[in-house]
Amino acid sequence: MTMKTLYITRHGQTLFNVLHRVQGASDSPLTALGIKQAIRAQAFIENVAFDHAYTSTQERASDTLELLLNGKLPYERMKGLKEMNFGVFEGQSEQLNPPVADYDTFFAEHNYGGETRKQVAERMNQTVLEIMNRSDNHTVLIVSHGAAIVNFLALYFDKSQFSSFGNLATVKLHFDENKQTFSLEELFRLAEQMSVNH
Asked: Whole-structure pTM over 0.90, yes or no?
């Protein structure tokens, strides 16, 4: 049995996080606190010998990864790791969001132009499996986004474990290459452990 290790992390705090605006396919920069969170989080991974690193193509994720790696490892940007697309709700106040129970298809219906949770989960899963099945990938770091990560994890685990997935929250997973499945080793809520509000 071939086991590999994956750390998958959410980006640091952004301007839209502070303004309580919907940021999915759209983007906003890391705040000073978001930068500080990523720099402080270096301590939690400094003893992990990553052989490869990946991020979504969005600025907030790639900037977080660059801060985490501190120039120690090149990385690849992949569109499949992007955040959920919220359609016409992008950039709008979070107060316009429906109840979480309605998220499954809401943003893809009524000509809103967004994605369903299933679509997000499937593209994330396809991308993560592609990464983990690369022959020279053994210990991998991925930086992505809250909804994208939680919908991916819900394919393998009880999603109630990840109901609060804050900035720099990180899951450590083991990947069974033979069975093509993941097991959960640990969930780190790094921003909370660092006593930093997010």
From this structure: yes
